[in-house]
Amino acid sequence: MATIFSMIVAGEIPSYKVAENEQFYAFLDINPLAKGHTLVIPKREVDYFFDLTDEEIGAMQIFAKKVAEGIKRAFPCIKVGQAVLGLEVPHAHIHLVPMQSEKDMLFTNPKLKLTPEEFKEIAEKITNEIAYDLTPKSWTD
Ligand code: 5GP
After folding, report:
1. Ligand 1, residues 29, 82, 96: which to mutate, most atoms within 8 A of Cβ?
2. Domain 4-139 falls in which CATH fold?
3. Is residue 91 annotated as part of the catalytic site, yes or no?
4. Which of 55, 76, 124, 141 is the most exposed place for a label (fewest CB within 10 A)?
5. Does the CB atom of residue 89 touch ligand 1 within 6 A?
6. Closest Cα to atom 3, ligand 1: which residue?
7. Based on the number of CB atoms within 10 Å of its own CB, is 114 exposed (0-12), middle (13-18) or buried (19 or more)?
8. pLDDT tens column, 78-134
């Protein structure tokens, strides 16, 4: 059975898409730790992040870097933090979270409740900040 994230990639479940190329998909976490909290996933269904191939991890990290740059421009922060947990959804993903302090990375923190309009606005804001290099080639340059 497809994972919930594969169903998102296939458009069978809606998501607030931030960016996409042939291999990877970025979308807002539905229970965000902060405005701009984004998930980056490979389209290929793999549960454990470290079971991805070396090439996939390299390319995924470059894709995540572009997304993180967009998040930082859209939501000014000290740094964008990155975390890999994967205890809830068995489809490898990188969390990207804009940080004002170390505490913003605590996954036990209460999650933000945002309206669909707010999610849409956040996703668009990030997309607009990375749109300049959305062509697939630039992800692997
Ligand atoms: P983890 O597996 O890294 O512990 O957490 C999975 C993350 O995926 C959680 O932060 C959770 O909010 C997010 N998540 C779970 N299901 C969905 C979903 O259907 N849509 C979106 N956008 N995020 C989800």
Report:
1. 29
2. HIT family, subunit A (3.30.428)
3. no
4. 141
5. yes
6. 86
7. middle
8. 999 999 999 999 999 999 999 999 999 999 999 999 999 999 999 999 999 996 655
Show Cβ contacts of residue 9 under 8 Å, excluding neighbours closer than 6 positions. Answer: 25, 41, 43
Nearest alpha carbon to residue 48 among 97, 7, 89, 107: 89
pLDDT tens per residue across span 30-72: 999 999 999 999 999 999 999 999 999 999 999 999 999 999 9
- Distance, in Å, from the CA atom of 17 to the CA atom of 15, rounded to the nearest integer, reads 6
Return the structure tokens found at 102: 């170390």
Choose one of 6, 17, 31, 41 to mutate for the ligand 1 pocket test, by most ligand atoms within 8 angstroms of C-beta. Answer: 31
How is 63-86 classified by DSSP, letter by letter?
HHHHHHHHHHHHS--SEEEEE---
- The single-letter code of the amino acid at 77 is C
Which residue's CA is the nearest one to ligand 1's atom 12?
31
Query: Which of 37, 91, 93, 95 is the catalytic position?
Result: 93
